[in-house]
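STRUCTURE:
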């Protein structure tokens, strides 16, 4: 009987070895892949809400100055370039009870951009205030009233992929004898693709 048992053990051992070889060899022949997609984003620009410093009632006209922060993001992957203009509406007056009175509004012509700082890069292409690159202070930038659109920042084609901020100095001329209350203006920020 010992002779019969030995061959059976040998056959069982050879079968187990063949199964182990097949198990280890199988995965080495598989072709696995990893796929990653990237989709284009958007082109956007906005000015952060700004509260000008409160001032006391005055019988003479006076100026209030501050700095607005413009943020531009180009995640389009187009490299087409872009330009941004800003325009303000008149300052609508409301009294302490929240009641408007158009007679006390401050005209948009009294709100002006006085300076445009070199853009700062948060991510992407480096800002460069050199013609034909960018992002940079708009080559057509002129300080003045925001009652009409003012172009403040731009990037030429091949530049401007990224996120940028720009400080804009502003002045509001408050007319003499302006009534106590709150004055609110709405800004229109226009971003156009291609410079």
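SEQUENCE:
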């Amino acid at each position: 009987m010992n002779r019969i048992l030995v061959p059976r053990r040998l056959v069982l051992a050879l079968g187990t070895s063949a199964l182990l070889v097949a198990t280890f060899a199988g995965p080495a022949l598989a072709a696995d892949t990893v796929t990653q997609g990237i989709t284009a984003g958007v082109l956007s620009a906005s000015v952060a809400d700004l509260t000008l410093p409160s001032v006391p009632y005055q019988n003479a006209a006076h100026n209030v100055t501050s700095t607005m922060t413009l943020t531009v993001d180009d995640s389009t992957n187009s490299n087409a370039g872009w330009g941004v203009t800003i325009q303000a509406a008149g300052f609508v007056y409301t009294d302490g009870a929240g009641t408007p009175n158009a007679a006390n509004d401050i005209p948009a012509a009294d709100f002006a951009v006085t300076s445009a700082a070199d853009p700062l890069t948060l991510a992407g292409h480096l800002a460069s205030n050199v013609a034909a690159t960018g992002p940079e202070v708009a080559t057509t930038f002129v300080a003045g009233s925001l009652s009409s659109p003012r172009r403040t920042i731009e990037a030429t084609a091949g530049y401007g992929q990224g996120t940028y901020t720009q400080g804009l100095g502003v002045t509001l001329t408050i007319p003499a004898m302006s009534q106590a209350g709150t004055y609110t203006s709405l800004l229109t920020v226009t971003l156009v693709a291609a410079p």
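REMARK: The longest strand covers residues 62-74.
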